[in-house]
Amino acid sequence: MATEIERKFLVVGDAWRGRVAHSESMEQGYLTGPPAARCSVRVRVAGGQAFLNIKSATAGVQRDEYEYAIPVEDARRMLATLAGDVVTKVRHHVDVEGHLFEIDEFGGANAGLVVAEIELDAVDAPFPRPSWLGREVSHLERYYNLRLATHPYARWSEAERNAGDAA
């Protein structure tokens, strides 16, 4: 079984921009997902490649995850005909002390939202905390891409944008 251990943080300021190793535009849409399903099924096109991703529908930093390469043409057709709302973003890769942070700068209805993710080998693994790493949002489902597809950042209330624990 594949397990993903990922922590998410809001990004503060632009100090990270000077450290970007490379960036890629992404489009992703969901073919199925909660509340009825026990998993989300996502199709993603990024950097000339496409993937089908299946992730358990549980909140937190550790979830089951499976990902498979698929033909780009198939992925684009799935996005156009099977997916609901599509999330667009630019993913920036930033190395900090040998740790890869993936910083997602969202577009479209999620413009203005910038989130950093780091994948870890263990839930309690140590990692650097650069000054631009803001509040942790790993347990807040509204920051999950699946939720951003159905309830985008542009429609969030001020309370949702500032709340630390409400979903």
From TrEMBL:
Domain CYTH: 2-150
Active site: 30 (proton acceptor)
Pfam families: CYTH
Record-linked Gene3D superfamilies: Hypothetical Protein Pfu-838710-001 (2.40.320.10)
SMART domains the record matches: CYTH
Protein name: Adenylate cyclase
